[in-house]
Amino acid sequence: MADLVQALQQQSADVDSVLAELTENAACAVPGAQYAGITIATRNGKVRTAAATGQYPVLLDEIQQRHGEGPCLSAAWEHHTIRISDLARERRWPSYCRDALADTPIRSIMAFQLFADHHTMGALNVYAEQPDVFDDEAVEMGLIMATHTALAWNLVRRDEQFRSALASRDIIGQAKGMIMERFKIDAVQAFELLKRLSQSSNTPLASVARQLVESEHPSP
Length: 220
Known about the structure:
By secondary structure, this protein is α+β, with helices and mostly antiparallel strands. The chain has eight helices and five strands.
């Protein structure tokens, strides 16, 4: 895991492949874990599986989406760590536990907060088919894995945001050049015109620029 984080600091990486490797590492490193997954959820109730080592993490996230409750959501929004020793004895999240027992063989779950802000949260989750699998050692290892996963996630997101900013800058530059040539104005005036178009249409500046460039050079 430390090698993966170091590699991320030194080079760009594909988000999907990084998340897949993170979940594989978690499933292997946490004592007793058979499956692992990363859950991403938003305040409006949408839940998705960013990565998973098998079908059950995905199915359990679908159950959380269905009922708007579950250990992964609680770990992210309310607590840093959630441990379920046995789904059959669990009294929290009754609708989730009922469907999880009916639709999967999973009995033990641990969920660790990765990040949470005003709009989105993430959790690293590990699962086992036997009850009472995750002891204090497993919790400690899970916390270590979640810390490294959160760091790696932030590095990947930072790289994505940087590349997106570069792409936006390039497209805005192209649009400015087109406006300067068409209306015979300078760069400052061209940018001010783009800003006014953005404000009047309530559209992000980069989107306005992209529309102008695409209208000038339509795709075949």
